[in-house]
Amino acid sequence: MQIQGYFDLRFEAVRDAFAALFEHTQTRGAAVCVQIAGETVVDLWAGVADNAGELPWHGDTLVNLFSCTKTFTAVAALQLVAEGKLQLEGPIAEVWPEFAANGKSRITLRQLLCHRAGLPALRQPLPPEALYDWNAMTAALAAEQPWWTPGEAQGYAAMTYGWLVGEVIRRVDGAEPGAAIVARTATPLGLDFHIGLDDEEFQRVAYLTRAKNDFGDAAAQRLFKVLMSDPASLSARAFNNPPSIMNSGNKPEWRRMAQPAANGHGNARSLAGFYSGLLQGRLLDAAVLDEMRREHSAGEDLTLLSQTRFGLGCWLDQPEVANATFAMGPRAFGHPGAGGSIGFADPDRDLAFGFVTNTLGPYVLMDPRAQALARSVAECIG
User: Which Gene3D superfamilies does the record cross-reference, listed alphabetically (predicted)?
Assistant: First the structure.
C-alpha cells in the first residue's frame, strides 16, 4: 500500500502504524492528521475512495464524519452563549416555545449538550423520508415526552442531538443550522468541512462500506443484540427511527441535508484543524472552553449501554476503560464518529488529532484503529 502525504521524521512510527492498518485490518481508505501547537507533523492518506476500488484516496477526499460533527455544533451553540444570546441554564422553551410540551418546559441547553435531557429517541414511528424533513423532525421532538426525568440520567442522543441543538441555533442565529455552524467553526479556520454538501462536491466523497464478519467488542455486541431483538427499546428507536438512519450514508439526499449530529463531511485535516483552533482560543475563549471540557455527565449510558463520560458536546477520556480512551492524555476531549472516524485534542501536549476512514467498524465507543495511531503518536513524543 502506497502511503501519501507528509510526516515529520520524529513520527515515522506513526506512518508505519498507519500503513499497518491496510495490512492487518479491512481498511480500504483512510487519512490521519496530527498538529502540535498548530503545526502539522503528520498528514497521511492511502487506499481507495470508491466502492469499486478504482479511485485512489486523495489529499482532499471528504468522508462522512458522523458524530464527529456534534462538537462543531456544540461550539456554535457555546459561541451564542458567549455572545449573550443563549444561556446554558436557560430553558430551551424560551427560544423554542413549542418545545415546552409534555414536561419539557425546564430542559436547559446544558442538559441538551451533555445528553441528560431525556430525548435520545422518538417513540412515535416515523416514515423513512422524515429523516430529511427538518420541520417534521423538530416538530416530533417538540411533542415528545422525555424518556426519564431531565437531569437525572444520561443517554446519548445519537441523531436527535442534531435537530435539538440545531433548531436552537437556527432560532437564535437566524441562519439555517448547517450554514450557521460552518460559518462559526470551519470558515474562520479555513477548514474543508461541510454540513449540507453541495452536489459539485460529491465527486470528492469517499464511499462508505462496512467491515465484514467483524462483530466488535462486548459493548458493540451488547448494543447490536438489543437493536435486533427489542425494536421498541430506547436504543433501537434512537438508531432506527426513522428507519432510514442506519443505511443512508451514501445517498445523495443524506449528503445534501444538514443534520448537525451526524452528517458533517470533512477529512482528517479538518478535524485536526478544528481542535487546534479550539486549543488556540480561536473559536472559544479559555473560560468557555474549560466549561465545555469539564465533566458534566458520567456513568451508564441508557442509549449506548456502556459507560460514557461527557462534557458539553464532547466526549471526555476514560483512561481506565480500554474501549473508551482516546489513548493519549487523561484530559483529552473530542468526539468519535460511527464507524471509526475521530477528532480530539490533548491539551497537555497542545496536540490535535484527526482520523477518518470509509471502512466502518462496528465499535460503539472508540475504534481500535484510531487508538493504535494515537498511541503511536504519544510514543513518538515521549
Answer: DD-peptidase/beta-lactamase superfamily
